[in-house]
Amino acid sequence: MGYAMSRLEIDSDLCDGGKTTERASASQSQRPKEPLAYLDHEISQLTKLRSGPSEFLSRVAPGRRELPVSAVKMLFGREANHMGRGRFSQADCCHVLGRYLPVNGPSRVDAMRSRAYVSQFSADGSLFVAGFQGSHIRIYNVDRGWKVQKDIHARSLRWTVTDTSLSPDQRYLVYASMSPFVHIVNVESAATESLANVTEIHDGLDFSVDDDGEDSFGIFSVKFSTDGRELVAGSSDHSIYVYDLVANKLTLRIMAHTSDVNTVCFADESGHLIYSGGDDNLCKVWDRRCLNAKGEPAGILTGHLEGITFIDSRGDGRYFISNGKDQTIKLWDIRKMSSSATCTGQKYIYTGSNDHCVYIYDLVSGTQVARLEYHDSTVRDCSWHPSYPMLVSSSWDGIIAKWEFPGGREAPAPMVQRRSRRRHMF
């Protein structure tokens, strides 16, 4: 069993949630941030390599290099075919997009009368999902002016929609609440309104181990595997569950923590590694290839002083970030604890906040680069578009708000006027 220390730590005043472009939600910073002197050199250099312009495109004039490299110079270099490929590399694309933060706005996407708990872009950015406490889950078509593509009325809801997850092919959505049943909806069906078992069937997937389906626990977190064949879930009975969608049965239960398992996710495309975080203050790494009868983790990552609220993987099987109730966000390297998915620049960590704001931090320097104010209540979740400088925040004030780069197209007018704009001390 291995142990690891966090490589990046950002103080925050956390409420709940947490996500990495790498994201984290929801936390609140209390004071101006200085560059972090102890920021891990390896992740800093790796991020620079994956988000910096190529040497040839950045040196337009022979023997001369200007920093920062402008997009115009890079476009000129591409057209002149300095790289010999006639196109940008992934790092070039990341450098261009990484210069533009979505801080313009926001414009209001939607407003409901119940708290918004979870929200997330699809992998390609064409869809956006928001789950509300009042039994509603809405799927917006981003490419069609944020039109509501699916208005789902959840089945057997207990307390709130605790989590949602879109399948990789974007055909299905699963949602969970404080119940051992996860429900699945066909997103591609013709009907816009999906009322559970009235207009459409929301199949229930039973995560309970007992045959009688004893409703003794609830599910806090549920995620699809990269191939869409499995679901992983974290629950209030201290366990991690894996459900095989092809065989339509529960295949694995791990007694993972000594308290609620608030967050789980697959580490990479292989599906072998699972990250989990619980109210026992621990992050754990599980390797399904070598689980013994005792269900011991491959590693335990200690450092948080209070419960873990969210974990988000970088998708490379190496790095992930965790958000905790101890007011910190931590970046972990799991290689440090024991003897390649496609990665982009992922230059920023962003987080929702209990002080009604969204914060954005630079992963290389650790400095805070933006503080977005708009909401009147806790920002429970937020999501950055996978390829454009656009961020959407969801709050307990029932509002879904969209932030864009200032140079982008003009944001549409809000549906209703805000009664007040609260400002908060940093």
Q: Could you name the ranges where pLDDT drops below 50 across 5 or more consecutive residues?
A: 1-7, 12-20, 25-39, 338-343, 410-426
The secondary structure category is: mainly beta
Which percent range fits the helix content? under 10%
**CATH superfamily membership of the domain at 2-10 and 21-50 and 126-346, which one?**
YVTN repeat-like/Quinoprotein amine dehydrogenase
What's the mean pLDDT score?
A: 79
Instruction: Output the radius of gyration.
Output: 21 Å
**What percent of residues are in strands?**
35-45%
CATH topology of the domain at 2-10 and 21-50 and 126-346: Methylamine Dehydrogenase, Chain H
Can you tell me the overall shape? Answer: globular
Number of helical elements: 4
Strand tally is 30
CATH class membership of the domain at 2-10 and 21-50 and 126-346: Mainly Beta
- Give the strand order of the largest sheet, numbering strands 1, 2, ... along the chain: 1-21-20-19-18
Distance between the termini: 40 Å
Main sheet, how many strands, which sense, barrel? 5 strands, mixed
Judging by the overall fold, what is the CATH architecture of the domain at 2-10 and 21-50 and 126-346? 7 Propeller
